[in-house]
Design brief:
Strand content: 25-35%
Distance between the termini: 24 Å
Oligomer: single chain
CATH superfamily of the largest domain: Nucleotide-binding domain of ferredoxin-NADP reductase (FNR) module
Structural class: alpha/beta
Number of domains: 2
Strand order of the largest sheet: 6-1-2-5-4-3-7
CATH class of the largest domain: Alpha Beta
Number of helices: 10
Length: 292
Amino acid sequence: MTEHMIHSHKVLAENIHEYWVEAPLVARKYRAGQFVIIRLNDYGERIPLTVVEADPALGRIRLIVQEAGKSTKEMSLLQSGDSILDVVGPLGKPTHLENWGNLIAICGGVGAAPLLPIVKAAAGIGNAVYAVIGSRSKNLMILEDEFRAVCKDVRVATDDGTYGLKGLVTDALKAWVREGQSFQQAIIVGPVMMMQAAAEVTKELGIPAMASLNPIMVDGTGMCGGCRVTVYGKTYFACVDGPEFDAHGVDFRELQLRNQAYRPFEKNATDLFSDHKCKLDDPELQAKSHGR
């Protein structure tokens, strides 16, 4: 079995990490919007992660990961030279892109990571891309410079007002429209509640919108059914039918509830990991602990 070496690891912001990982087959086939499922070790949970960038020549992919629970906290301990057991992909459908004209790209928190490759690809085929990047605070904002390098304009919003507009990403979008800016398409990535709010506002403004959904995934092939989402009353599997869907038809309330299904197990796994300082070489504790 071939393991996947980590070639670099750096901290981008509090609890947000960037990795370049050896995965030559993924790097060769990847297109914007697709993701991988990784497993750190024999006892590891399967974690879906969007590929932020690929380098086919070097056979490496770029991943950005936020510590959210046991598995991602465990991943934060890995350094250059360490390896990941499994990297499976690219999975999901590539983002549907066309030359819409003015594209508004909206993200919150670590949602900037999956949105960035889409923005680059959209700008590359001639779209004028405008971006709104949101975070709780200035110290949690990531990738702003990379967005500015490819977008026509970028605005930032923070919940606490430490940087940019104090408020929500939807406030920034509304302000742009009040100023006379028009948009022919929107792409939304981030926490479920943020995506729901952005979907509602874009619908009110008459802007077609896609949302990249983040349901619980297990196998990534559509077999387990764990990533079921409802769009316009019809059931889809995000891992094979998505991850992007028409934002105006998504049942975000259902998505939020489904994402909470394993919270007690995730908390138990995280507490066990923290209490015992569980690491990759501790199989007994690894076997007991599951959940991001």
